[in-house]
Specification:
Rossmann fold, TIM Barrel, 3 domains, eight-stranded parallel β-barrel, four-stranded parallel beta sheet, 15 strands, elongated
């Protein structure tokens, strides 16, 4: 026998819920029933309030309450005698809720790419500032904190910096070609050196730590093989970085060098410095990081060096942490990284659902109160209340249309609230995002939750 799902909703969502369920039923094997409880807005329901009123059919195998129903669902289960779960916050997401292909959270916990996060211009920074930034980078997902030195004068404080980072519990690498900086950094606890070529490979044999080998001549990989051979003969552990060039400066050709190095050294550890793309490209960094981490995952490049200096790349470490999990899952499963996780879908939403003018007109005819419901669809903002449906692409014009109706319930506080919500609705309409009144726009992992301001609970509300 198929499952029987009993959906609990309020009066306003009744018709829309039934429409979605009828369209969904041929795709998913379950029977269903809908119980409309005596409340207009389903988001106001509490578990205790539902438990006192719900009457599921005997054949019910699961009760599904609105996603905004907060609190312990056990109080409903004790009376209904069947499992109770929250559905999606937007009933139009029910098809995804029942047919989602997204892996479970534990399936995205695995990764094998390490993140080396560089603190740029470390000699110019105070030790306190370096330690504060290192803590933020580690919290975002960095595995090693890279101390970025500067060409020119030897930094005499590098050992103190590395020691302080080590004392704070960080794993540390040092970014320099200068043996006079590298040696004291390694002695203080740095476990990785970026970078080594013919200029300092003789000294590298004495450092006793892992190093990143780079070519002397980037376009031809000149000097790379000689450095690798010398260090390997000396027993120095190493990673190879053929150097990723910025777009417009040989980017595609440099990608080819990673393929060539992997062909020459099929078992070698490799590193890709990705900041030359994220920092030097006028584009948000999230999708770029995902693409570059995908290349690394397929080529077996198990570490990346990243920075987050330019403002549009200021969350690169966190983006790389999310991306490495997605690409590891995609490669392991042999599937594209689609419907895997939505944390990096930031600018636009994965899908935008619309009610349509007919449904909004019907909603206006059924509403009995004068509260305002806001929607953003098809490039316009819509305001719906009892016997009222106004729409405009300009929020100022929409508010003026409302004022032309001489409303009696728009005081200064209400006007401020409507302005705030219409600003969010305009942003959603401009970018193609889903707007839900009283809810934060979905910015992926950057989403900030918002308090509810419109829905005030009266004494007769749950």
């Amino acid at each position: 026998m198929p499952d029987h799902f009993h959906f609990v909703t309020g009066r306003l969502a009744d018709r829309a819920l039934r429409d979605v369920l009828e369209k969904l039923r041929p795709q998913v094997e379950f029977e269903h029933s809908v119980e409309v409880l005596p409340i207009t807005v389903a988001a106001l329901m509490s578990p205790k309030w539902i438990a006192d009123r719900i009457q599921p059919p005997l054949q019910t195998t699961r009760v599904i309450v609105p996603g905004y129903c907060e609190g312990d669902l056990g109080v409903i289960e004790s009376g209904a005698k069947v499992p109770v779960v929250r559905g999606p916050k937007d009933l139009r997401q029910l098809p995804e809720y029942f047919g989602s292909l997204q892996p479970a959270a534990d399936e995205l916990s695995s990764y094998d790419i390490k993140i080396v996060a560089e603190i740029n211009h470390a000699p110019r920074r105070s030790l306190a500032a370096i330690l504060a930034e290192a803590a933020q980078l580690r919290a975002a997902g960095a595995d090693l904190i890279d101390v970025g030195c500067e060409p020119g004068d030897t930094w005499r404080g590098v050992a103190d910096c590395v020691k302080a980072l080590r004392d704070a519990g960080h794993r540390v690498s040092v970014d320099s070609l200068n043996p006079l900086e590298i040696a004291p950094a390694v002695h203080a606890g740095a476990e990785l050196v970026l970078s080594v070529n013919s200029s300092n490979r003789d000294a590298a044999c004495d450092w006793g730590c892992e190093v990143v080998v780079i070519p002397d001549e980037f376009p031809t990989l000149g000097g790379l093989d000689e450095t690798v051979e010398q260090l390997a003969m000396a027993g120095v552990p190493l990673r190879i970085d053929p150097i990723l060039e910025p777009i417009g400066c040989g980017f595609a050709t440099s990608l080819g060098r990673y393929l060539e190095v992997r062909r020459r050294y099929p078992d070698a550890e490799m590193l890709m410095g990705i900041g030359n793309i994220t920092e030097l490209t006028d584009a948000d960094s999230a999708a770029i990081n995902l693409l570059l981490l995908g290349i690394c995952q397929e080529l077996g490049i198990r570490s990346v060096l990243t920075t987050q200096v330019i403002h549009w790349a200021r969350t690169s470490v966190r983006e790389c942490d999310l991306a490495r999990r997605m690409v590891h899952y995609a490669v392991r499963q042999g599937v594209p990284p689609k419907h895997v996780a939505s944390d990096l879908v930031i600018l636009r939403d994965a899908a935008v659902q619309a009610y349509g003018n007919e449904h909004l007109d019907l909603l206006a005819s059924e509403i009995k109160d004068n509260n305002y419901r806001l929607f953003a669809e098809r490039g316009e903002m819509h305001l719906v209340s009892s016997a009222l449906h106004l729409a405009d692409a300009d929020p100022f014009m929409l508010f003026q249309k409302l004022m032309d109706t001489a409303p009696k319930n728009v005081d200064a506080a209400h006007a401020f609230y409507l302005g705030f919500e219409l600003s969010k609705a305009l942003t959603a309409a401009t970018l193609g995002k889903q707007y839900e009144q009283d809810q934060a726009l979905d910015w992926g992992f950057l989403t900030q939750t918002e308090s509810h301001h419109r829905l005030k609970r009266g004494k007769n509300m749950p």
